[in-house]
Fold each of these.
Amino acid sequence: MGRPKKQKPTREDGRFEYKAVISHTIDGKAKYKSFYSYESKADARAKAEQYKLEREVSARTGEVFSGNNTTFAVWARKWLKSYKKSSVSANTYRNTYESTVENHLIPYLGNAKLIDIKQIDIQNFYASKSDTCSESLLHKIKLCLCGIFEAAIDNDLIVKNPAKNAAYISNVEKHEKKVYTDAQITKAKAYFKNDFFDVYFLLETGLRRGELLGLMWKDIDFTNKTLRVDRSVAEKQGGGVEIRPPKWDSYRTIPISTELCGLLSELPKSSIYVFPNVNNDIQTPRSWSRKLERHMKTMVKNCHCMIELTAHELRHTRGTQLRRNGVDIYTIQKLLGHKDINVTAQVYVHDDIETTRAAAKIV
């Protein structure tokens, strides 16, 4: 009996390759992984068996499996696509999630393996951002980090979330939000009562921009003088708009004044929307904001001691006015549709110095 023939390498680079089934997809299809050896195919097969053994030990003990080479950048982008792109508006996806991941997280953590990232690395990352990022931006960053790592845990890529207990501090001076005083509110209402009524309406209700544009006539109860917030308009990636629930699912019914009811009743009702575009169709948030900017500039030119405000600052003016008038934060939360009372408290409890002065009886 002659000697068995010596096996020749199966690859041009001189290595032997062995393909092993390492798992199965949710529909039962086998998932393969290649293992290599310069010695023999049997040696490559032994590496495959060792790999599968380590996976099994990892599953039983909860220890991180060293065979996972997924980098932060690869997983973060997969998280964006699979977990966020279809669950939030296009604007929220771009401004809150995609920009945060691409502009802040991937440049710092992108090349690191998920399994190698520790809490100290996240802490050092926050330290590198403390002098350049505001508290609100750092909050977005942590929101993304925790979501990315929690999803990695759910998909068996890691066993711990290194961002969970990491803390950040911003050394950036807080930007003071612009609001109108009571006198400026009166002046703005008088100006916009007959010219771009949208501003008057926002100063009366504090609705978000998307909620304003999604408001339909059927949402207004003239008999009971209430307004129902049932939807919001958001930009779609690639153009156009989409109708979504209000932010944080903040469906709510709010009371409106007799005067506002009267002014609304005088508006044309040629569209299902209260504030349609020139074609009586729904407006895009971007085009509406450009229109607001033009009207604001004209108002500032024609009115003494007035300033330009954005839609969000008009909303913030309404909340500040309510607080100045002694309205409790629980009621403000309901009227503005904040996610929880902590948001309202952080924004309005100490926001207005004159309110604080009056409450403390400092003369």
Amino acid sequence: MKSSILMALDIGSGTIKGVIGEKNLDTGIIEILALAEKPCLGIRNGEVVNPEQVSLGIMQVKEELYKSSGMKIKDVVVNIGGTHLFSVNSQGLISVARADQTISKEDVLRVKKEAEAVSLPSNKEVISIFPKEFIVDGEAGVKEPSGLRGIRLEVKVLLACIFSPIINNLEKAINLSGLNYLDSFITPIAVSQAVLSQEQKELGCCVLDIGFSVTSLAVFDKGDIVDFAVFPLGSSHITNDLAIGLRTEIQTAENIKKEFGTLKTVVKKSIGDKIKVTDGDIEFSKAFLKNVVESRVNEIFSEAQKALKKIMGQSQPPCGIVLTGGGSLLPGIVEFAKQKTKLPCRLGEIKNMKGVENPCFATCCGVLSLGFESMENDSGKMISNGKFGKKIKRILKAFLP
């Protein structure tokens, strides 16, 4: 059996998650060999702000993965997320180079490069490029123009951009941990890779990933990403509100949220309405807890609705919203989401992978899947995402006066 083995990391705000997976190159099935999750400092809103501290967390995850799998894998792919991640729509236009007017793969790469050449604010850079459609001599809706005949080739793309120090800090943290950084993928795309089918992407679907302190939204239609959004709200805000409201420690509030937090209907003054927690001698009502949880979740979905309306206007994704991330584990969140958005909603399930079901690992598994695809077609992936050129530029900067 031909197979490939790879490590993937999810650098989150509260924890670092890691997986080691093996892909059967004959069947395409990915089996998760080991899972690990460790708390980590040095990360704020999903972004590495202290590479030294983060490298220590990565090393802890790495050692646990080595211990669980019995393998020492050095190559790693990782997610890029956080509130500094943003999108830009762009277009590129070129004349077909060949005399016989046949569009070559080189023409496709050139038009993507042309679309990538946008003016960005200082210290911002393009990290990924996602073609939406090609236009050949005015004919739109072309997905693969190579081999077609034409004089003029256009492309409409979505560019993923980020504040440059964020990616520099991420790469530094990985290098300090002793791993070999192969590639990176933005969190909204990674999550979608893990939980969406091609049919859902084709018909139109939205993925809402509710993380620790950041929530991301990705919208797909006609098989491609339409746009994405990231906002600084997550499940940790519920914990913070509980800590303040109950005048207790953060860890105690987190335990209360995980054990008793719910969005399900609570009948006030019912038998057993009071909850008493021995840790800190805290007593509160179920209705109080539900109100705190509901207020923050309502805020998250309000922001998601604003982003969805900005992306799609009055249109709605026929396949509705798929929920994932740690925040999606709150009891009653699917029913709450249906009532709030008036759309079909369901919990995301990790697809085409054996050995993992926890939606908290959706980003990690998506990164792993994209990493395997990148390895299979390495040069094309790096050029199309614009990463290879960026890495070369960073290396050259070190030698410039």
Amino acid sequence: MTSLQLSLAIAGGLVLAAVVAHGAWQARRSEIKRVAAEPVDPPAPQEPSFDAPPPPGAAADDAGTVPRIEPTLGRRSAGPRLDALIDAIATLTIDTPASGETAVMHLPPTRRAGSKPLLVEGLNAETGEWETPSAGQRYGEFQAGVQLANRSGALNEIEYSEFVQKVQAFAESLGALADFPDMLDVVARGRELDAFAGEHDAQLALRLVSRGAAWSLGYVQQHASRHGFVAGQLPGRLVLPGGEEGAPPVLSLQFDPQAALADEPSQAAVRELTLAFDVPQTAAGEAPFGAWCAAGEALALSLDAAMYDDSGQPLQAAAFAGIGQALERLYAALAERDLAAGSAAARRLFS
């Protein structure tokens, strides 16, 4: 893969560089160039206010200003489903319905072809719905798919051949006839989709750097929790949960993981935080941009921190409006391709 970059620029005299998806999809994630702007003005003595509306399920903090996501009970994120937009799909035809036990027994031992996810679904003979095969059900037809692209790059010929080999073995175990799409067409679709994804992959991130003494980790956690952040699964990561169970977080607040692994984490010191959100992974309805702006300014004020990009350029809060406009254009481009940010297809593609 080549290095890919998305520029989000604004005019009007602001020196604003890019919000980009920068880099090596082979490493399974984009490297991000942060947003740069004019120097930061000295912080005002009062808590800032924000015009962005709170996201669904959000509540304001004690000052009534910073969006906070409250987890919504009873809403579950749907699991992966085959989608002709981002998958190459093979059909498996059988003469008589097969039991779920038989299908599960003979599923491919690994659900990947190279670096691409491989999914198998069965058409439930009773409900008429496509689903992951499970015991106790009967299936009158099957289909299998391999993802055309992800952040590792486009599906290649070797990966597609591995997909065919695994699905053919599954089909033979069921006495099914497998019909595969043409390899050249599939690989060409994968490259085209990968090119689009690379041009529309972005993450907004800013650095919060202490103006004075280092912060204790407990002090950071105390202020972050006021804005809805909770401990993430990885050391050195706090997250603002999304509204769906199992969905990616709306925001992440990252710091040196060694601080979290210290013998006494509450006493560990950090001088820098990174506040970010993954644009294609996060639905616009969660209002991640408003939460990002609000949390960035509020934490900068409460922690006495300056905001910077990753190249050391100060980030001015006045630039947020222009960034938001450029972000809307990115959302529109994704939606036009039926890959709206936060949708199941987008989350699979940009992973």
